[in-house]
Amino acid sequence: MSFMQYASRQRGITLIEVLIALLIFSIGLMGVAGLLVMSARSVHTAYLRTQVTFLAQSMADRMSANVIGVWKGYYNGSYPSSGAQSCERGCTPQQLAEHDKALWGSQLATFLPPATKAKISCSAAGVAYAPTLDQIASRPPYGGSCEMTITWTERGLTVDSPDADDQSLQTFAWEFQP
C-alpha cells in the first residue's frame, strides 16, 4: 500500500474531529453560562437578604434609642409610611418615632423591591409592671417584646423554570426587645 492510497482514505476525518470537538466545547460553554446565570441570581438573593437584615437592625437600633416611643406604641404599624417629620430642632418621642418611620420606609423603598411590606408590633404583655410617666421619662428598659416582619419578592432560583420571571415571596420575621 503506497502513501497515496493511504492519504486518499483519510480525507475528511480531521474535519469531523474538529466538528465533534466544537460540539463538545459548545456544550461546555452552555453549562458555564447556566452556572453564571445561577450565580448572578444567588448573589442578588444574598444582597436582598443582607439588606433586609441590615434595615431590620437599623430600625431596632432606632427603637432602642426612643424607648418612650416604643412604650407608647408609636412604632406600631405597617410600612412604608409617608410623611417625613423633621427633627432638626428636637422632637418629642412621638415626633421622633414618626421621623424614624418615614426614614425607614424610604430606606425600604430604596433598597428592596417595590412590593416590599413591613410591619412592627410591640406589646408590653407579660411585663410585671407598667411604668409611670416619670419612670418612662427616666428611660427604663423596655420589658415587652416587638415583632418585626418584612416581606418581599425575589426572582426564583430554579433553572428549569419555564417562566423567567418566577417570583417567590420571602419573609423575615424577628422578635426582639429594643
In short:
The protein is α+β, with helices and mostly antiparallel strands and 178 residues long. It is 50% helix and 17% strand.
Please provide a written account of the structure.
This protein has 178 residues and is an alpha+beta fold. The chain has one domain (14-176). The chain has five helices and four strands; from the N terminus they run H-H-H-E-H-E-H-E-E. The model has no long low-confidence stretch (mean pLDDT 81).
Total strand segments: 4
The amount of beta strand, in percent, is 15-25%
* Residue runs with pLDDT of under 50 for 5 or more positions: none
Give the % helix: 40-55%
* Class of secondary structure makeup: alpha+beta
Number of helices: 5
Oligomer: single chain
Morphology = rod-shaped
Whole-angstrom Rg: 30 Å
How many separate domains? 1
pLDDT averaged over residues: 81
Largest sheet: 4 strands, antiparallel
Pfam families: N_methyl
Organism: Dyella dinghuensis
Keywords: Membrane, Transmembrane, Transmembrane helix
Protein name: Type IV pilus modification protein PilV
